[in-house]
Amino acid sequence: MNEVDATEAAAAGGQEQPGNIDSLRQELEATKAREAEYLDGWQRSRAELANARKRFQREQEQAYAGAQADLLIRLLPIVDDFERALETLPSSLSGLTWCQGILLIERKLQWTLEQAGVASIEAAGKEFDPFLHEAVTHEPSADVPAGHVIAELQRGYRMGERVLRPSMVRVSSGPEQAAEPQK
Predict the structure, then answer these.
(1) What confidence tens digit (pLDDT) does each residue in 62-92 have?
(2) Which of 155, 164, 168, 60 is nearest to 116 (CA)?
(3) I want to staple 156 with a disulfide (CB 3.0 to 4.6 A). Which of 24, 121, 136, 145 is the partner?
(4) Residue closest to 147 by CA, chosen among 129, 160, 165
(5) 157 burial class (0-12, 13-18, 19+ CB within 10 angstroms)?
(6) Rounded to whole angstroms, how far apart are CA atoms 165 and 157?
(7) Which residues have CB under 8 Å from 127's CB, separation 6+?
(8) Can you give the residue ranges of every domain in the chain?
(9) What CATH number should be reported for the domain whose range is 118-175?
């Protein structure tokens, strides 16, 4: 074959058949559909991984907060013991160095609780709240309105919004009713 024949054959062969163009278009559309499917799957997997990381971090923070709260709950009876001991400390002993050392330990324990975000729950004179207070007794009282706390028997504590221990309280049932005479 000479050059002219080869060029003509190449030109004639370069023209596509109409059916072949349609099949190439269909193949291109199928490839684009697979590409979109793969992209969608990749984006979903990426979002699932990000959500799993956030969930793991949130669960880890909750576990840490739970462990911290458990430890703090175990320390609260020690705080109570220090408070009771210091309340009964005779004033004649308060100037001794070993008493000053105990006071220092109690202050450090209180500071540690404060640093952990622990705060005492106010109770005396407040309206009774079953989420914050545990009623030990209901007593008549002319001074305190019904449904309010007369006195706190054991201090309650909270850490943020979480109640570590409710306050044990005495609750007023209002003024004492006079007994009606029997007929």
Answers:
(1) 999 889 889 999 989 999 888 888 888 888 8
(2) 164
(3) 121
(4) 129
(5) buried
(6) 5
(7) 147, 148, 149
(8) 118-175
(9) 2.30.22.10
And the tokens for 171? 């609750």
**Phi, psi (deg, nearest 5) at residue 88:** -95, 5
User: Residue with structure tokens 């221990």?
Assistant: 165
